[in-house]
Specification:
- The protein is an alpha/beta fold.
- The protein has a single domain, classed as TIM Barrel, CATH 3.20.20.
- The protein is 34% helix and 15% strand.
- It is built from 11 helices and 10 strands.
- An 8-stranded parallel barrel has the order 3-4-5-6-7-8-9-10, surrounded by 5 helices. The chain has a two-stranded antiparallel sheet with strand order 1-2.
- Strand 1 and strand 2 form a beta hairpin.
- Helix 1 runs parallel beside helix 10, helix 2 packs parallel to helix 3 and helix 3 packs parallel to helix 4.
Length: 319
């Protein structure tokens, strides 16, 4: 495993982070979920990303139980706040931030998280109120650093311009071979201000593994076949996308890589990316993905990937 520094923080995190969206809040059997976490540590992953809303707290509770007894300084723990936990509990007001960090810490069984992230931007709360509350969370020792997910460049800049508040050290955008929009503005702006990228959906909801074939029924055990887990996949499963992805197979084989490893290595080619979040339902997936760390792709290979995927790049619709 390779490691990178997260923005201007003193956090050193693995190039791959273990995520818990859809999986560790009840989407995967308990024994398998525990095995995935243990395998992550075995292969050198020290970065775990979750959110209060995953399984309505169940993912955090699971992690609190499975991490109990492990040296707290041996891993970096990140969670998020914004999405509804109930009809009256949502957003980034000061009251919500303070309420939700306390609830997250209780579920996680820890006194602090290393990174507390705004899961989205809250247009209904003044930004100064949000940033002041996050600053208080850090001052109280409940979080070491703060970050955000899916904020626009304008929103990021507005936060940077506020005086006397804690500065963000991380951004969490969706980013993959098929969805490259953060490269245009978010990556450069963040790089100029010491904000590292922790990217989600690097395998484009599993499409970049190559397991989905044009015109074919999705595998029975796949995300696309599960109505509870496939809500973001309509654009990704278009034939033009699936056909182009299949054309990546010879490139991966030429490097003796799995398709997933190729997709993750492509993400990590950009040093502005600190870590990429993987989701796994089986420990062997964790091990396979981890092998992408440290893989170098030549300029010629990157150009070939661009050529193959040119017809498939998502332009306007999020995965």
């Amino acid at each position: 495993m390779k490691y990178r520094q997260l923005g201007d923080s003193d956090l050193t995190v693995s190039e791959l982070a273990l995520g818990s969206w859809l999986t560790y809040g009840g989407g995967v059997e308990r024994q398998q979920a525990e095995a995935c976490v243990h395998k992550a540590f075995d292969v050198g992953i020290n970065f775990i990303d979750t959110a209060n809303v995953y399984g309505r707290g169940a993912a955090e509770s699971f992690l609190g139980e499975v991490l109990r007894g492990r040296d707290r300084s041996s891993y970096v723990l990140a969670t998020k706040v914004f999405f509804p936990m109930s009809s009256s509990d949502q957003g980034l007001s000061a009251a919500q931030i303070h309420k939700q960090i306390d609830a997250s810490l209780q579920r996680l069984g820890t006194d602090y998280v290393d990174l507390y992230q705004c899961h989205r931007y809250d247009p209904n709360t003044p930004l100064e109120e949000t940033m002041t509350a996050l600053t208080e969370v850090v001052q109280q020792g409940k979080a070491r650093y703060i970050g955000f997910s899916e904020w626009s460049p304008t929103q990021i800049q507005a936060a940077l311009d506020l005086p006397n508040v804690e500065k963000f050290v991380s951004s969490q955008p969706q980013y993959s071979m098929l969805w490259r929009h953060p490269e245009a503005e978010v990556f450069p702006l963040c790089a100029d201000h010491g904000i590292g990228q922790i990217v989600w959906s690097p395998l484009a909801q599993g499409v970049l593994t190559g397991k989905y074939k044009p015109g074919a029924t999705p595998p029975a055990d796949s995300r696309a076949a599960n109505d509870k887990m496939n809500g973001f996949m309509s654009e990704l499963r278009r034939d033009r996308v699936l056909s182009a992805v299949q054309d990546l197979q010879p490139i991966a084989q030429g490097f003796n890589l799995s398709m997933a490893q190729l997709a993750l290595a492509w993400i990590l080619r950009d040093r502005r990316v600190t870590s990429t979040i993987i989701g796994a339902s089986r420990p062997e997936q964790v091990a396979d993905n981890a092998a992408a760390a440290g893989v170098d792709l030549s300029a010629e290979v990157l150009q070939e990937i661009d050529r193959v995927l040119a017809p498939a790049l998502l332009q306007t619709t999020r995965a």
